[in-house]
Each structure stands twice: as C-alpha cells, then as structure tokens.
Design a protein that fits this description.
The structure holds two protein chains of two kinds. By secondary structure, chain A is of the alpha/beta class. Chain A has 13 helices and 19 strands. In chain A, strands 1, 2, 4, 6, 7, 9, 11, 12, 14, 16 and 18 form an eleven-stranded mixed β-sheet that branches. The longest helix of chain A has 17 residues. Chain B has one domain: 3-Layer(aba) Sandwich (Rossmann fold). In chain B, the strands form three sheets. A six-stranded mixed β-sheet of chain B has the order 6-9-10-3-11-12, with helices on both faces. In chain B, strands 2-1-4-5 form a four-stranded antiparallel β-sheet. The longest helix of chain B is centred in the middle third of the chain and has 15 residues. The chains are: A alpha/beta, B alpha/beta. At the A-B interface, α11 and α12 of A face α2, β7, α3 and β8 of B. Bound molecules: adenosine-5'-triphosphate and magnesium ion. Adenosine-5'-triphosphate binds next to β2 and α1 of chain B.
Chain lengths: ~500, ~240
C-alpha cells in the first residue's frame, strides 16, 4: 500500500473519536471581512461552542473596541486596517502555486537546505491540492501518532486542540483561560480572545512527568491555525512537560496579521519548558510582505518551587512584538528566558521578557542574543520587577547584540523596578560587530562566507541554543545560517 | 608549487608589498625573515586570499593555476594552509566542531565523503597526542582563553588534520617554550614531503635549527632583498639586518 493510502487508512481506523486534534476535513466556510459581533457569533457557531465561550469572546471584543493599538515598541509598520482582514478562514486563494515550479526559488532553496522531503515542501509552500496531503504528510512523518496517543493517555496527559478542550474539559478551561493573560491585558491579546481560531490545550496531572516532548508540529491541520492561536498549558503539582512550538520551515501564509496568546500555569513543584522556533515569512529582500507577529506569552508560576523556562529562536516575520514573561508568584520559583532573535533585510524585532517577582527567594535568568543584518532593527526590551514582599530575589540578565552589517541596528531597553532592598539584580550588555578577523579565520579553514557567518553566529548563540531540545537544536542551527544568507557587509 | 612574480599588494590604500618575486618548488622549505612591518604577514594573508588585500600588479601561480581566481575557502580546498601569527578566538564554537567542519569542507571540495564522527575523533586524538596537546583543548571553544603557545599548537593541529600541499606558517615559533618549539618543529618536519612545500615566516634562527630550510629570504619594505641558504639566517642572527643587507 502506498504511504499516503496507508496513512489515510490509519486515520479512518481512528474513526471519529480521535482525540488529539487532527482533522481530515479541510473544507471550510468563511466569514466576511472585518470584525463585528456577528462575525464572532459566526466563529463561535462554526466551532459549535458552548454559550459561555461565546460570551467570553464577546466580552473581549467589546473591551477591544475601546482599546488602542500600542505604539511604544521600536517598530515601524503601516497602520493595520482591521476591517480589511478575514478573521475566520480567508478565501482559498486563486493564485496558489500549481506545483513547486511556481514557488519562489529562494524558499525552495531553504527547504532543500533544511532537508525537507519534497512532499512536505509542497504542503509548506501551499501548492494547490497539497493541503489534503498535509494531514497525511504529518501522519507519515509521525505514523507513530497512534503509539504516541496511547502513551499519553496512559500517563493521563491531555493534549488536544483548545476547541475540543472547551467542549470536553470545560471546567478546566474555564478555571484557567484568561487567568494569566487577562482579556484586557493588551490590544492584541483582547483581539485574540475575541477571534481565536484554534490552538493547543495541555494538561499534565499531578506528579506526572510527560513521557514525551509535545510538539505542535503534529497538530497542523488547516492553513489558518497560525493566525490567532491560543495555547493553554497547565502543569499540576510536581508535574513536568516540555513543549515545542513552531517549525523551522517557512510556511506559506496568506494572513499577514498574527496575534497569538500563550498561557502557562505551574502549580507547586511543577515545571514547564516551552521552546519556540518562529520562522514565519519575513518578507522579501526589499521588505515587501511578511508576517506581523504580535504575541502575548506569559507564565504564572503559581505554586512554590515551580519553574518555567522559555527558549525562543526567532528568525521569521517582518515585525515581531513578543515578550514571553513569568509572574513568579510562588516562593522559590524560577523563571528563565533564553532568546535568539535574528533580523535580516528589513525585518524588525522588538522582543524580550518580563520577570515579575512576587514570591520570596524567587530567581530569574535572562539571556538574550540579538543578531541584526541587512537594514534590520533588533530591540531587546525587558522588565525585571521586584515587589515589596519579595525578599531575596535574584536576577541575572545578559543581553548581547551582534551586528552582521553596518546598516542594521541593535537596541537594548532594560527596565528595572525594585521595591525590596534585599534583591540582587545583575545586568550585563554587550554590542559587537561580527569581526573580519573571525570571518577570515573561518574562511582560511575552508568555510565559505555564509558558512563562516553561520558558524560565528551559532557560537554567539551557544548559551541559548543549548537550552533547546535536541531535535530542535540541530534544525535551529541550520536555520540561523540560512536566515543570514547574503547578509555580510 | 608556488610562483610569485613582481607582486604588489595594497592594504587600506597603502602599498605594502612592492614588487616581490618568489618561487617555491615541491619538496622545498623556504624561510622568510625580516623586520617588523616588512610585509611578511601581508604576503601570507594575500596568499590565503584575505579580502581587502588588493593585488594591484603581478601574479601568483599555484600548481599552474592563477591563485587569484580562487576564493579563500577554495584555496584551502586546493591545499593551501595558513598558520596564523595571531590565531583568532571564536567563542561558542568548539574546537572539535570547527576542525571537523574544516576537514569535511576540504574533503567535499576534493570529492571525498565526509568523515564520520568516530573516524574523525580517532584521527584528531592521534594528531593531538603527537603534538602533546591536552585533549581538553579539543572541547574548548576555538582558541578562547588558550595561552599564546597553545594557540600555536592548535594551528599545527589544524595543519596536521588538513594535510596541505603548501603550508604558510606565520611566526608559528613565536611564544613557544623550548619543549613546545621542538614538538612543533617535529610537526612541521612531518609535513615535509617530496610533494609538499613549506613557507616559514620567522624572526628566529632557533626554529631553523630544527626545521632546516632549503632557502632563506630577507624581506624589507615589501620586497625580498637577499636570498641564500640557511647560513644566511645564521649570519643575520650574528650581525643583524643592517650589516647583512
Ligand atoms: N589595514 C592596513 N592599513 C594600512 N596599513 C596596514 C594595514 N594592515 C597592515 N598595515 C601595515 O602594513 C605593514 C606590514 O604589516 P605586516 O603585518 O605584513 O608586517 P610583518 O612583516 O608581518 O611584521 P611582524 O614581523 O611585526 O609580524 C605594517 O607597517 C602595517 O602597519
Ligand atoms: Mg607578521
């Protein structure tokens, strides 16, 4: 049996009760352009949601209407016309590539370098008719999906799309949704609450160490899930989970605006490790096109002795606005943020973290590596805040910027607010230009210019990359090199 | 092997090499000596193809090919190795990873398959041992925190791994203690074969006691002003540059 037929068979065998968020039905209706209460009702009805969910969305929408788009970031982009956006399933484009021959050769070269099989390339590039294969391709590369599912349910881990969780575990969702990132937290978060299309729900029961790394890659089903994604992860007392988000290959996406919300909750002695590789379309060499990525990611370390570690490798998107943060409420809790942000051509990234220390003896570590090439701008923006009741807080922050070109910009904007004199806060920052001596040394050892840049940049990012899970780390290393191609100058 | 004819090189708009001619045949070892700032490193960098070292006149022919047509990394593939006067630190990149990438790059250039991690480890351990290098240095970041002598030894390790046809060694003997000088010299001698050539840049006769050159050249102000056998180096050591040239 051909591989595709075989996986189809497998999907069918799983019948309708397959719990982990796969869907073989890719035909979708669409809502008209723009946002209104009706559109939100439509989305909610389409998803067959309970009424509390609809009410929650509408409440967020009404709040959003009164809010202003933030403008404090060092970002420059044309005003977004929210009435010109499809919030639920954009129409199928007429000019989808018919085959890989019609796909931007630059993108194909990237796939090749990343070693992505042809069939998956078609899916990623959005070749007509390949969407159907998406499910198969994902299943094929993960035919293990079944074993996967069995192992997870044995451990009592819930890993499903958030839409399903709303129906199957409404109490859990109600209890936690919007508790870490309140609806009115910021403009984009409110928007996401109103219109989120789908996302992931993870629940790790008390004392369980999740038997495998959970990855969204296994859950791609339609073209639009990335747009207004919503993730909720709850780690009960003494549990542990490592979650991987994203994928190194650039995916075709017709939606320019992305506004995701991620909420993490750790109870006593629990730990969540959240790793992201973000490689959305960055726009072309002249800065045309590309995704606007406005993300709110926050963890509430509710229990004592709990730990959250954010690791991100951000190479994509035309505009990135993203500050994965930790609210360290439990005593002795530990927050970590390890970040690599690469910008090339005309990309702009304003990213960093917030560490809010509320509990006693809480500690946080921030390691940020910004690499700017081309005419791009790369800003680290971070807040370390120590509340008055938080005794013996420690924070260590290290922000390093590497300029690959002389026409790019690196900026560091650290905010420190300390209301307890026992806090120990350390901040180190460096900015350097990639050195000609290093480049020549590598080239004199047989590396071409691009390999030399990749090697030096990977070295520069080492302290962050080593926090990525193995399977991500190797790809992410390649990705750094590819993102910086043709960038020396 | 290498034929340099009437070479003129500018760096940052200033002419540093001003009409240099030199021929090195297979199997030969040449030494270049000269005052600080004479242009010795400039010559070495030009052979390796450093950007911004502009050849304004003259030719460099390597194994019958116009060397100037090749990119720096291609020259390495063609068998040229430059041992740096000041080896560069690359934080975050392990020495092993660096050397393996280099070796496999050269192999690929020559149509050979990449060496497996296991084979590479065997090879690099053996070569490091021959140079009496602490194996820990293989795991450290490239040259980061290495002492001056350790950096030079690390250059020799890379040469041994890449097994070049033409090795240009820029003051590889500077900063070495007596024992290290002997060990490094043995490494250089091991690289001397009928089909390989070596260009040593040095300030000291001492190295030449261990690595006996076929020819010694004295370079002053961007030109070779005097050439001879190894006795020229001895004469230089005794009398100094002023009275020799
Ligand atoms: N970028 C540059 N711009 C202008 N002059 C330069 C530049 N780089 C090197 N030089 C000059 O070129 C001359 C030759 O330098 P080079 O390093 O080749 O000397 P050297 O013979 O190797 O000296 P040493 O024995 O001290 O190593 C020096 O006067 C140096 O200052
Ligand atoms: Mg020199």
């Amino acid at each position: 049996m051909a591989a595709t037929a075989k996986t189809k068979q497998q999907v069918e065998d799983m019948s309708g009760d397959y719990k982990y968020g796969f869907s073989t039905d890719v035909d979708m209706d669409m809502a008209p352009k723009g946002l209104s209460e009706d559109v939100i009702r439509f989305i909610s009805a389409k998803k067959d949601e309970p009424s509390w969910m609809l009410d929650w969305r509408l409440k967020a929408y009404r709040a959003w209407l009164k809010m202003e788009e933030p403008n404090w970031a060092k970002l420059n982009y044309p005003k977004i016309d929210y009435n010109d956006i499809y919030f639920y399933a954009a129409p199928k484009s007429q000019n989808k590539p018919k085959s890989l021959d019609e796909v931007d050769p630059e993108i194909l070269r990237m796939y090749e370098k990343l070693g992505i099989p042809l069939r998956e390339q078609e899916v990623l590039a959005g070749v007509e008719g390949a969407a159907k294969v998406a499910v198969d391709a994902v299943f094929d590369s993960v035919s293990v999906a079944t074993t996967f599912r069995e192992e997870l349910s044995k451990a009592g881990v819930i890993f499903m799309s958030i839409s399903e969780a709303v129906k199957e575990y409404p109490d859990l969702v109600k209890k936690y949704l919007g508790t870490v990132v309140p609806q009115r937290d910021n403009y984009f978060a409110a928007l996401n609450c109103a219109v989120y299309t789908d996302g992931t729900f993870v629940y790790i029961p008390k004392g369980v160490r999740c038997p495998m790394e959970l990855s969204t890659y296994f859950r791609i089903n339609t073209e639009n899930t990335g747009q207004f994604e919503r993730t909720l992860i709850i780690a009960e007392e003494g549990s542990y989970v490592s979650y991987l988000e994203g994928c190194t290959a650039p995916m075709r996406d017709e939606n320019q605006l992305h506004a995701a919300v991620v909420e993490l909750i750790t109870l006593e002695n629990a730990e969540i490790k959240y790793s992201t590789v973000q490689n959305w379309y960055p726009g072309d060499k002249d800065g045309k096109g590309g995704i606007y990525n406005f993300v709110t990611k926050r963890a509430l370390l509710k229990g004592d002795n709990s730990k959250v570690s954010w690791t991100q490798v951000e190479t994509g998107s035309a505009v990135t606005w993203k500050y994965p943060s930790c609210i360290l409420a439990g005593d002795n809790s530990v927050g970590e943020f390890y970040s690599v942000a690469v910008t090339n051509n005309y990309q702009q990234a304003d990213t960093g973290t917030k560490m809010i220390h509320m509990g006693k003896n809480t500690s946080s570590t921030i390691i940020s590596k910004g690499i700017s090439a081309g005419k791009s701008h790369n800003t680290y923006r971070g807040l370390v805040k120590v509340l008055s009741g938080a005794d013996n807080v420690r924070n260590y922050t290290q922000c390093d910027s590497l300029l690959v070109s002389s026409t790019s910009g690196a900026h560091t904007v650290p905010y420190i607010e300390v209301r307890n004199p026992s806090a120990q806060i350390e901040h180190e920052a460096t900015t350097s230009k990639i050195s000609d001596d290093q480049l020549f040394y590598c080239r004199a050892r047989g590396l071409d210019e691009e390999e030399a840049v990749a090697m030096i940049v990977n070295g520069f990012c080492k302290e962050v990359m080593q926090h990525l899970p193995m399977e991500f780390a190797v790809e992410a290393q390649k990705l750094l090199g590819i993102s910086l191609e043709g960038s020396v100058g | 092997m290498l034929k340099i004819k009437d070479l003129h090189v500018q760096v940052g708009g200033t002419e540093i090499i001003k009409g240099l001619t030199l021929e090195i045949k297979p199997g030969e070892t040449h030494a270049i000596m000269g005052l600080n700032g004479a242009g010795k490193s400039t010559l070495a960098n030009t052979i390796a193809g450093r950007d911004d070292y502009t050849v304004t006149e003259g030719t460099i022919t390597y194994q019958g090919k116009n060397l100037l047509d090749f990119e720096p990394h291609e020259r390495v593939g063609e068998g040229i190795f430059l041992g740096f006067q000041y080896p560069v630190e690359i934080p975050g990149v392990s020495n092993l990873n660096f050397m393996r990438t280099a070796l496999n790059g050269v192999r690929k250039y020559n149509g050979l398959e990449a060496m497996t991690a296991a084979d590479f480890m065997k090879l690099v351990r053996a070569k490091a041992k021959a140079l009496d290098m602490n194996p820990d240095m293989l795991k450290r970041f490239v040259n980061v925190g290495f002492s001056g002598g350790e950096k030079k030894r690390n250059e020799m390790l890379q040469m041994a791994l890449l097994d070049p046809k033409l090795a240009v060694l820029d003051e590889t003997d500077s900063g070495l203690d007596i024992d290290a000088l002997r060990i490094v010299s043995e490494g250089i001698n091991a690289q001397r074969r009928d089909d390989t050539s070596i260009l040593l840049i040095t300030h000291y006769q001492r190295l030449l006691d261990y690595v006996q050159p076929d020819f010694v050249h004295i370079m002053i102000d961007g030109k070779i002003v005097k050439s001879g056998g190894k006795e020229l180096a001895i004469e230089l050591e005794e009398k100094g540059y002023a009275s020799v040239v």
